[in-house]
């Protein structure tokens, strides 16, 4: 991403853009620089803490919400079975899922173009768990950022072993709990309960998955940390193409702040408001200096806004030197407002959501595929009847078993189900069956006749299927 500083502001280190050549967490030798981020304090941090409580509540509670015996959400990738808002989706719903994905991607593009990394800072599980859970535990066990740094530099004393040991045990236990909840989203709480309570030998794969997820979460939160956002997360890496100069970002007001200079009780007219106190850098969990402009590593956590506001208040300056703003807003001094562009994007997002909701609501609960049995031609039955054999495959997405019958629509003839008078498809399941369609010879006027077959549950017509009937034509 290009530097955000205009030529007019020479006091900003605009020539020195080497910070863009490598990650803030990597030193000259290419080694990882551990970030000892100061604990933030302030109104944004308080608001994010409250937001995170809702998030934790939702994350932990959702797998336990069942509707008509079905989880509200389930993402069973291994068996390609998904439940969204209590509605089950099979691979046959690929079209809706595909469209949903496209709508979701457009949503992300529009949302990011308008609101920047608001999601990363306030809702992303990686940030929320790291900053509001693991980092707080770290402050609690190892102390402030300065104390953590001192501890890291110490030899392996008893105190260090005790603190580090306690922290990593707690981290692993938390990761194990998170892994359990995460697995509940994939297999459901009932299956998870079985893994926990039944003999290990019966759930080797489940247990292995549980330990694997625990290990991954532990490694991410104990060691990998901000690298997940700056190196792995594709959303983070796409910021340079998703953001533009009108996007809302956490931005430093260089017009007001530069030239920066140390605080002095005697007002210096030639200096801007930035006290060059480096508090915004010390508090940043990704180790960047937001005064250098928009950077890929910024996860929009607002910690620098809070700390800078505190510094401004302490020195009786107006707050908001670092604030939510757009690059153009900083340049022109315009306050961030709900712009026409944002309104347009919100409208587009609304339309997308409505299209998706309509598709979900009009989706068939019982979906069938009807085909003539491969390799079979027509059969003559007696002197006046022709038959064709058909295979039907049905997916039942409802909460109850459905006994299906079939009738010919607007046509003489009958449907004869092989092996009974209906095809039973169990709830949340798939079923298959075969039936003959018998037509009077006189009604078969062409080699191929298009026919429509009604699919019924009792007297309720569920769907109408179109197929072809093969016959002969008397020359
Ligand atoms: S916290 Fe504010 S005043 Fe201090 S260096 Fe950062 S921008 Fe400047
Ligand atoms: S620059 Fe500010 S908002 Fe961005 S990650 Fe660092 S502290 Fe958070």
TrEMBL record:
Full protein name: Cytochrome c oxidase accessory protein CcoG
PANTHER family: FERREDOXIN-TYPE PROTEIN NAPH
InterPro entries: 4Fe4S_Fe-S-bd (IPR017896), 4Fe4S_Fe_S_CS (IPR017900), Cyt_c_oxidase_cbb3_FixG (IPR014116), Electron_Trans/Redox (IPR051684), FixG_C (IPR032879)
Sequence ranges assigned to domain 4Fe-4S ferredoxin-type in this UniProt record: 265-293
A GO term from the CC aspect: plasma membrane
Signal peptide annotation: none
Gene Ontology molecular function, alphabetical: 4 iron, 4 sulfur cluster binding; metal ion binding
Transmembrane segments: 49-67, 94-120, 169-188, 203-224, 344-362
Keywords associated with the record: 4Fe-4S, Electron transport, Iron, Iron-sulfur, Membrane, Metal-binding, Transmembrane, Transmembrane helix, Transport
Biological classification of the source: Bacteria, Pseudomonadati, Bacteroidota, Chitinophagia, Chitinophagales
